[in-house]
Amino acid sequence: MLGVHGAVFSRLNRAMSREFGITLAKFDVLAQLYRNPAGMTQGNLSRQLKVTGGNVTGLVRRLCGDGLITRHMSPDDRRAFVVQLTVLGKETYLSARARHDAKLEEMFREIDVDDKARVLGILLAMAARVQPSSGAAGH
């Protein structure tokens, strides 16, 4: 699983970097902000991405520098910062998402639909087994 993940990640990351000047990490931030047009606090963004606050801070700083997002103090909590997509950020994300999806389709096109469904079912069963909230007994 890790080998497949690493190979897919590497190919997608190269394509995103070459064609849009963004890494997959930046793409993930843009995706979260696209799903939350009103913006998100950096803390909430960190939780959604399952990365440390320090990682998000660095990504946010670079994305602001690229003109893809804005960052401003939260009107509700002066200790928090809210980040939002800019128009350029939204355009970049939508173009990158189309390429991302096309690249995944290209990589997995030759695999039979039924095989993909079986693999997904197995992965979901494995995930349910190891998730702490699943109630499954740990070993």
What descriptive keywords fit this protein?
139 residues; globular; mainly alpha
Strand order of the largest sheet: 1-3-2
Shape: globular
Extract low-pLDDT stretches: 134-139
Strand content: 5-15%
Report the count of strand segments.
3
Give the structural class. Answer: mainly alpha
Mean pLDDT: 90
Number of helices: 6
Nearest-angstrom radius of gyration? 18 Å
Distance between the termini: 20 Å
For the sheet with most strands, the description reads:
3 strands, antiparallel
Query: What is the chain-wise order of helices and strands?
Result: HHEHHEEHH
- Helix content range of the residues, please? 55-70%
Structure write-up:
With 139 residues, the protein is mainly alpha-helical. It contains six helices and three strands. The protein has a three-stranded antiparallel beta sheet. α1 packs across α5 and α2 packs across α5 (87-108). The longest helix has 22 residues, at 87-108.
